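stage 2 :: seqdesign
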């Protein structure tokens, strides 16, 4: 049980955690989404509550039970997630962007259901890039507060290893910590456990061996607590 034997080192702190995956609607019945279950974000919220924090959980399309004791804000689209994060982060000591926002959304949403054409020609859906919420949160903060952590789902490829891509991403995003998931195998989505590396802007690299998502959550808060003023 994550509640036992944990320091209350987040007492008096307000933390904001996002969880789940956003949806972008093509028409009233269809959307573009992703495989994020919200499990890791929920585990982060639970762990922060156990450590005494006041927690805002911004949940995007999560179908799991949410922790009692957290202030929950439910969102659907990336635009809603962005607005909720902007509001909640004003008073935050730490922010963890565990949600998976859709990178792209349809340029426009059809008012009515898109119908099949008699000639069998499939529609072409034009996409536009969503704003990067994490980058915005980093840009709009004052000095080093709040501490901001992002997640990165990466696969190794011809251009570099998982950690090569993650280092570049950490630099691009400008956040303090980046929690790196290797999604090259079926080892992450919807599973109760995870294995991550916590990269820090100061150059440190902390591997967290495979463990329940609750344990991973505490390892992430350990890294954050060290950096909270
Ligand atoms: N993120 C965000 N807003 C977006 C996209 C991502 O805040 N529009 C955040 C995620 O919540 C995560 C971090 O950025 O904390 C990294 O997300 P990831 O999908 O790995 O990075 P991207 O910048 O979207 O790059 P790509 O998917 O191309 O690897
Ligand atoms: Ca992405």
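stage 2 :: out
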């Amino acid at each position: 049980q994550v509640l036992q034997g944990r320091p209350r080192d987040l007492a008096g702190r307000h933390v904001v955690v996002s969880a789940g995956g956003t949806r972008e609607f093509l028409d009233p019945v269809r959307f573009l989404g992703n495989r994020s279950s919200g499990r890791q974000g929920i585990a982060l919220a639970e762990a922060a509550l156990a450590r005494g924090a006041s927690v805002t959980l911004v949940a995007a399309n999560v179908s799991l039970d949410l922790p009692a004791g957290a202030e929950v804000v439910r969102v659907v689209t990336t635009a809603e997630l962005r607005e909720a994060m902007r509001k909640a982060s004003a008073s935050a000591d730490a922010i963890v962007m565990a949600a998976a926002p859709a990178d792209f959304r349809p340029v426009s949403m059809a008012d009515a259901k898109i119908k099949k054409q008699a000639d069998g020609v499939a529609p072409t859906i034009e996409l536009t890039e969503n704003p990067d919420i994490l980058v915005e949160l980093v840009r709009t903060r004052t000095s080093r507060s709040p501490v901001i952590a992002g997640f990165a789902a990466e696969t190794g490829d011809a251009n570099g290893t998982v950690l090569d891509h993650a280092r570049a991403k950490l630099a691009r995003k400008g956040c303090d910590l980046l929690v790196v998931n290797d999604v090259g195998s079926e080892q992450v989505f919807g599973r109760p456990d995870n294995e991550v590396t916590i990269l820090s802007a100061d150059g440190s690299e902390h591997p967290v061996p495979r463990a329940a998502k609750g344990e991973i959550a505490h390892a992430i808060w350990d890294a954050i607590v060290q950096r909270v003023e």
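stage 3 :: structure notes
- Residues 56 and 213 are 19 Å apart (CA to CA).
- The longest helix spans residues 213-225.
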